[in-house]
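Hi C.,

You asked whether I'd gotten around to modeling the 567-residue construct. I have! Everything is below, sequence then structure, no commentary in between.
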Amino acid sequence: MKRKKFLSRIAAAILAASVLFTGCQGTSQAESSSVTVSSTSQESAAQVPQKLEELRIGAVKEHMSFNMINNSTNVGGILAMVNYTGFVMAQLVQKDETGTVQPAFMRSWTISEDGKSLTFKIPTDAKFHDGVPVTAEDVEFTFNFYKEKMKKNNLSNMESIEILEPDTLRVTFSTPSAYSFLNDLNTMTTYVVPKHVWENIENPKEYEGEDSRIGCGPFKFVSYDEAAQTSYYEAVDDYFGGEVSIKKVSLHSYATHEALAMALINGEIDVVYNYAMSLDPSLAGLLEKSENIDLGLGANPGNEYVTFGLDRLPACRDLQFRKACSYAIDYSTMAKAIGGDYGEVAGRGVFAPGNRGFDASIEKLEFNVEMANSILDEAGYKDVDGDGFRENPDGSELDIMITPYATQATAPLRSRQIEIIADGFKQAGLKTHADEECLSNFDLGYQKVFNTHDYDLLIGGVTQGIASYNTASAYFAKTDNGMGYGTFDDPDYVDTYLSLFTLTTDTEYLESVAKLQKMNAELIPGIALCWQTSLFPYRTDTFSGGVYYPGWGMVNNKTWFTMTAKA
């Protein structure tokens, strides 16, 4: 009931803000058509939303780099994270609050019947922040730059990019990839880059010259105060994408969730934003008691998961072993640890509610130690030496390493998740040990997920961006083209996952997603640990308008154009 109450509050608040902002727009339009200025019209004009002087965004993410090419948050830090919302860098396309692709720098497009080519329009009045006009040559350079130098997966099968007119280009793929290209998260982070800056840079990821900060997004970099861990930005005049409603933005970095929450309570920041990481739900009670704060609750399209290391632990190739593991996790305790009062036991299909094609008919996960023990007994995993732990069917030792993919902010949660899994597995006679180094060496965890796959059981998280199209299967499937990051190599499963990137319609996408969920339930390449409600709180006394995105909060692509000063 508590969860429903908060969700109702956030829905009502967003609706009210939306109605208020729309109404004010209507007043503005009516005034512009009036010839005689009367006292009545002057009063109406006063109701027109005024630009917000400054939006202060807080996050648990360091200021790591101001090189705009470093669009991974592991390298670029807080700025790279906010750039996911079309901030300093202009995205080719963007997604709205429903996850539907919308125009951004690509103003419109058409897909060929065979799905292999994408013809799109670009603005002719856009400028980079140094005043240089953005041309079709810059866009052509952008595609080739990201394919050849940045090795972007979404452009790996691009055959050509050609300029048809000063405002029209066509990109051609070797496979029917145009539809998936528009929807892929990598396209959200394929930003338009200035050719005159990057064409002669040999190592773009290492470059830190002042011109590495230049983009053509709605805001431009101004300065960075290292002592205060705060960077500053100001709106671009005459932005091609529309009138920016916020004059200035500052990004504030905090070390912990507690510090971030207190900054919001004390009025040091206006909104909380952490891509792929909700504020710790244990802080909800503290925030709820504070004045002028909305919890910013909404369903998270992403979720926490575990997946199996088929390359390292032979038992992981045994379906019966994976099935037993799926019954040996205390999901209620796990949901509480991850989502507090708002965590929910997930389903066997893995994909979270709110994603396109979600199948609610697939059964929920169940913590059933008796079932786990029975399955393991039948599969031949028995305690041969009487030490309380099972051996492999061939009698060799079975000791499962649990590897966390952690950051400084998530390390405490990962430690608790390891404890919960280890306790449930112990009840099923499965011996485990924690991959302790990855709890402090975050780069090592990253390498294990994306490169070496040196794990038995991996704990990670599916971001809302990945979940919205690529799905959680991206972290389970083993592929040769870099589109899958896991070790599960079942041919039918891999082919079904890869079909997401060669289909041409929504119908085909939904069919593939439906099949993947059923395969997740039957083959168990990974297990969802929880379905979550995101907590992205914000102050209600510092701004008006804005749009709430599930899994993102009030900082998103529409923020820059709809958030205004408090009336």
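If it helps when you're writing up: The longest helix spans residues 2-32.

Thanks,
B.
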